[in-house]
Amino acid sequence: MTEARIRAKALCVFRHHDRILVNEAFDPVKNERYCRPLGGGIEFGETGVQAIVREIDEELGLAITDVRQLGTLENIFTYLGKPGHEIVLIFDAAFVDRGAYDRAVLPGCESDGTPFEARWMTLADLRRTAAHMPLYPDGLLDLLDLLDLLDLLDLLDAAAAP
């Protein structure tokens, strides 16, 4: 039996206009489809930035740049009938290959070899589908809304400056 523990994770949203990049997944125990940004566990001795650079390279085979932390969320959940607890560092970054933003789907591979397709979804679509396909970790949409509001306030302040 594994010891219950809190895991440190790093996820990246890759905000581009009004879209973020997510992986759709399924929990058969809860019979729930859900979305989650790409990323994974932070290894011992690794920073969150190093983890997200490594994870995106491993999952998509793509290089990223301009990595910046947007916030931190605590995620307490049940997956496959087992409780989980994560501290999740949320990042934004840019793909070195700008063509990644023009593709609707980016093929990827999980660490266990399972293939997946990451998709660009608008925040409006994620809000609309939240009842039957939530975005995890909990609180991520609220964090992105808050950051958009802060960006807007910065623009208004800059426009009002003499």
Describe the structure.
Strands 4-1-6-5 form a four-stranded mixed β-sheet, sandwiched between helices. It has a four-stranded antiparallel β-sheet with strand order 3-2-8-7. A hairpin with a 2-residue loop joins strand 5 (64-79) and strand 6 (82-95). With 162 residues, it is α+β, with helices and mostly antiparallel strands. Helices cover 25% and strands 41% of the residues.
Which terms summarize this structure?
162 residues, alpha+beta, four-stranded antiparallel sheet, 25% helix, 41% strand, globular
Short description, anyone?
This protein has helices at 48-60, 123-128, 140-160, and strands at residues 7-12, 19-27, 32-36, 38-41, 64-79, 82-95, 105-109, 115-122. The chain has 162 residues and is α+β, with helices and mostly antiparallel strands. A four-stranded mixed β-sheet has the order 4-1-6-5, with helices on both faces. Strands 3-2-8-7 form a four-stranded antiparallel β-sheet.
Please outline the helices and strands.
Blueprint lengths: L6 E6 L6 E9 L4 E5 L1 E4 L6 H13 L3 E16 L2 E14 L9 E5 L5 E8 H6 L11 H21 L2
Parallel strand pairs: 1-6
Antiparallel strand pairs: 1-4, 2-3, 2-8, 5-6, 7-8
| Rg measurement, Å | 16 Å
Number of helices: 3
Q: What structural category characterises the helix and strand content?
A: alpha+beta
**Biggest sheet statistics:** 4 strands, mixed
End-to-end span in angstroms?
A: 64 Å
Question: Could you tell me the strand content as a percent range?
Answer: 35-45%
